Amino acid sequence: LLVTSETSLTGLFPSSPVTRNKKLIAEAEKQVRRCLQQTKNAPYLVVGLPIWKTEPSHRKTLTRFIASRVYAPDGNTVSTHAKIHSCETDFWHGYKLQEFDVYGVPICMHICHDGRYPETWTLPVMFGSRVIVNPANGGTISGSIDAFEARAKSLVTPTSHAFYLHVNGGGGSFISSPHKHDNLLAVSEECKRTSQSFPMVGDPQECLVEVKINVEEAYGYWPVRSFRASEEIASAYSNLYRSMGGKRSP
User: Fold this and answer.
1) pLDDT tens over the chain, length 250 residues
2) What per-residue string of b and e applies to 137-166 under the rule 16 or more CB within 10 Å gives b?
3) Which residues pair with 82 in a beta bridge?
4) How many CB atoms within 10 Å of residue 62?
5) Can you state the angle between helices 119-126 and 231-243, rounded to 10 degrees?
6) Hey, how many other C-beta atoms are within 10 angstroms of the C-beta on 92?
7) In 3-state terms, what secondary structure has residue 156?
């Protein structure tokens, strides 16, 4: 699985023509599909791009969303997931949970600002997701490497017990494990302790943050424990999960 940042196809420029030109975006997406088709042993790929859909209650004929689209190795679309809680000008909210499978591994996704809403990952983990991916475009990484590591170790995994992949267009990307201590598995080049900028993070660099994980190490402890507190609580969580578009069985 290869995950790229939020709006990786166009960049995150809400008011710019680059995120409004449907024709050019479609042509760029065709190139992505063609590249997958022509690449031996291509991965599943997540690419960020603007999409347009009809919203019956909106005055506009088509409504624009920030989305991350999952492609199979043959270039076909597996699923498309609109940002759940948009915070950009002239983009609408997806409101639905983002879940998909890769080779039988249950995965959930939330995009950048969605990370402020814990239900975007705790609900999917309750119902089986064991890898969480977070495409983001939240600005340029800065500060000390110590501060970056402390934040990365404490994000999401202490409340999910799942693997977590954060990929940000401005640097500071990482992969963490469900483990309680020393859970950083890989970080982007500018945040490594071997960086020439140490003890501060460096300028963002294009790089591949990569690690092989054993999904069976993720149990989803805390969301699952909340779900199992009682039959009444399980029913309430199930109703909430279904109302947000969740489709997995408990």
Assistant:
1) 999 999 999 999 999 999 999 999 999 999 999 999 999 999 999 999 999 999 988 988 999 999 999 999 999 999 999 999 999 999 999 999 999 999 999 999 999 999 999 999 999 999 999 999 999 999 999 999 999 999 999 989 889 999 999 999 999 999 999 998 889 999 999 999 999 999 999 999 999 999 999 999 999 999 999 999 999 999 999 999 999 999 998 7
2) bbeebeeebeebeeebbebbbebbbbbbbb
3) 67
4) 12
5) 120
6) 18
7) coil
- Token pair listed for 186: 């890989």
Within 13 Å, how many C-alpha atoms sit on residue 23's CB side? 0
Strands 131-136 and 163-168: parallel
Two tokens at 201? 């993070």
Tokens matching residue 192: 């490594």
77-82 and 63-71 strand pairing: antiparallel
The Cα–Cα gap between 136 and 113 comes to 8
Q: Tokens at residue 236, please? A: 């309430």
> How open is the CA angle 195-207-151, to the nearest 5 degrees?
60
pLDDT digits (tens, 9 = 90+) for 137-148: 999 999 999 999
If one counts every other C-beta atom within 10 angstroms of the C-beta of residue 175, the result is 23
Say what the pLDDT of residue 59 is.
87
| DSSP conformation class of 55 | -
Of 54, 34, 56, give the one whose Cα is nearest residue 45. Answer: 34
User: Which strand ranges, in their side-by-side order, compose the sheet holding 2-3?
Assistant: 2-3, 45-53, 63-71, 77-82
The residues, ordered by sequence, that sit 6+ positions from 8 with a Cβ below 8 Å of its Cβ are 47, 48, 49, 135, 169
